[in-house]
């Protein structure tokens, strides 16, 4: 423990922390490289969206308001009868669409 | 400087005197940081992917409503919409859902006239040209669930009970499962036959608008012209997904808040209830000439060492969890729930906001909870502390 350097015990912690910092940086690059490797596929996926004119991701296909949340009616979970309780498991994890405030006022539907 | 380094050394030696306690705290602390960081990166990755992909979705979708419910749109409206200034192409979309009894899942049937070839897996030498007109292209999830390969037939029951069995001419690559997992793409004419949709009708209309600033104005004109029309713009679609992932992330965050609270209580309890040995150690240090500020520095170093090591270990665990294990802990909740579960890779990205939020949620409370009781002990008379 001489001069202005930490002793052996302190040095162990400093070395460990440094290794971990490098680990975090290395893994960040690994994550970024995964993105780059997939880049071609991501571009292909974008092309699929463009050519087939998709509006939604295929996350949950149990029911229409979970498969195409952006296209569904706000009342879709209650489609069976008024005040029906949502009974699809995915429905617990799909939020109702955001209020579409930028649409012009209309009386045509509950979403507008 | 030398004095600080010696205090730092002493802090490390202090922690090493109780290795089991030190390691348990680091383990629990690291898991907590890993869970928070994983959740944040996972939700961000999904949000980023949704924005990236759906940025190519149609500027406006025009639906027709009848009695508050979605109804088929007359194709003749497409011509009238195309005449609106600023509108490019207007494409009638024909699509719908089909319950597949053998797998007990609902498939999405989509009508198309062509497909991007690079997204498909084909049998050697086979490309969907003329083949596609009489066949179908299916998602990876459908092929997996129905054990289908190219060349096999997929039986579909039409609206009138007739059986239609198109040959599978292509399967979407698994890398596109996020979009195509449950998809069956048929030629539009065949899909009309399956669903019984007349040639002059479509499920909805996809409208291209040249200038993105004119989207709201075009949507307004469409709604003024057809009072039974509902327009859904691309920005609304993107906002829907932002809300969906905020909701899903929020569910987990609510659960994790209780874990953070439990950890905070643990730390507070550990901090406020300094053990007799720790209390005596502080008394001894004071008796041998340590100042209160130096005792505080010692405790600050102890807290900072535990926090730093745990924080970095937690971030590393989170990255490993997402990069190599695809976030399996959160996958079910964030992706959703379904019989046909899409399997795809996410692209996590560590950013400054994740580091800052994880740091403020874990490091700051731990260091604070360590310092407060130590300050109380350090201002106690050494004689009282030694006799305690």
Provide an overview of this structure:
The complex is a heterodimer of chains A (112) and B (388). With 112 residues, chain A is mainly α. Chain A is 43% helix and 0% strand. Chain A folds into 2 domains: 8-51; 58-97, no CATH class. Chain A is built from 3 helices and no strands. The longest helix of chain A has 30 residues, at 8-37. Residues 100-112 of chain A have low confidence and may be disordered. Chain B has helices spanning 2-16, 19-54, 76-82, 130-134, 140-146, 177-180, 188-195, 215-225, 234-272, 276-287, 292-323, 328-335, 352-378, 382-387; strands at 60-66, 69-71, 73-74, 87-93, 95-100, 105-112, 120-121, 135-138, 156-157, 163-164, 167-172, 183-187, 201-202, 204-209, 229-233. Chain B contains 14 helices and 15 strands. The chains are: A mainly alpha (112), B alpha+beta (388).
**Count of β-strands of chain A:** 0
Rounded mean pLDDT of chain B is 83
Largest contact between chains: A-B, 74 and 105 residues
Structural class of chain B: alpha+beta
């Amino acid at each position: 423990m001489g001069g202005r350097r930490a002793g052996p015990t302190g040095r162990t912690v400093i070395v460990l922390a440094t290794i971990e910092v490098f680990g975090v940086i290395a893994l960040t690059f690994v994550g970024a490289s995964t993105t780059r490797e997939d880049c071609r596929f991501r571009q292909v996926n974008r092309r699929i969206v463009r050519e087939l004119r998709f509006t939604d991701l295929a996350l949950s296909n149990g029911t229409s308001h979970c498969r195409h949340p952006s296209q569904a009616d706000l009342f879709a979970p209650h489609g069976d009868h008024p005040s029906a309780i949502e009974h699809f498991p995915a429905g617990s994890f799909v939020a109702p669409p955001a209020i579409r405030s930028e649409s012009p006022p209309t009386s045509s539907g509950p979403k507008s | 400087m030398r004095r600080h380094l010696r205090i730092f050394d002493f802090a490390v030696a202090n922690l090493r005197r109780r290795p089991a306690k030190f390691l348990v705290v680091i383990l629990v602390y690291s898991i907590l940081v890993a869970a928070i960081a994983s959740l944040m990166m996972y939700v961000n990755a999904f949000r980023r992917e949704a924005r990236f992909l759906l940025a190519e979705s149609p500027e406006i979708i025009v639906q027709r409503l009848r009695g508050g419910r979605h109804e088929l749109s007359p194709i003749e409206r497409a011509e009238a919409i195309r005449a609106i200034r600023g509108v490019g192409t207007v494409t009638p979309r024909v699509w719908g859902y089909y319950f597949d009894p053998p797998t007990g899942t609902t498939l999405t049937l989509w009508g198309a006239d062509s497909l991007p070839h690079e997204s498909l897996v084909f049998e050697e030498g086979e490309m969907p040209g003329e083949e596609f007109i009489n066949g179908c292209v299916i998602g990876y999830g459908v092929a997996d669930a129905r054990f289908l390969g190219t060349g096999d037939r997929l039986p579909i029951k039409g609206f009138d009970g007739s059986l239609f069995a198109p040959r599978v001419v292509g399967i979407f690559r698994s890398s596109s499962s996020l979009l195509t997992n449950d998809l069956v793409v048929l030629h539009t004419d065949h899909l009309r036959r399956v669903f019984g949709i007349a040639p002059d009708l479509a499920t909805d209309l996809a409208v291209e608008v040249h200038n993105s600033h004119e989207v709201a104005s075009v949507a307004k004109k469409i709604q003024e012209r057809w009072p039974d029309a509902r327009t859904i713009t691309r920005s609304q679609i993107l906002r829907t997904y932002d809300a969906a992932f905020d909701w899903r992330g929020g569910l987990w965050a609510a659960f994790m808040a209780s874990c953070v609270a439990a950890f905070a209580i643990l730390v507070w309890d550990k901090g406020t209830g300094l053990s007799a040995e720790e209390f005596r150690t502080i008394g001894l240090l004071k008796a041998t000439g340590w100042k209160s500020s130096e005792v505080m520095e010692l405790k600050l170093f102890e807290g900072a060492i535990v926090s730093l090591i745990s924080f970095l270990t937690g971030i590393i665990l989170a990255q490993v969890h997402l990069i190599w294990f695809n976030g399996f802990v959160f996958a079910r909740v964030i992706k959703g729930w379904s019989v046909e579960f899409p399997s795809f890779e996410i692209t996590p990205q560590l950013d400054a906001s994740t580091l800052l939020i994880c740091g403020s949620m874990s490091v700051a409370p731990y260091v604070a909870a360590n310092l407060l009781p130590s300050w109380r002990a350090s201002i106690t008379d050494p004689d009282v502390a030694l006799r305690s």
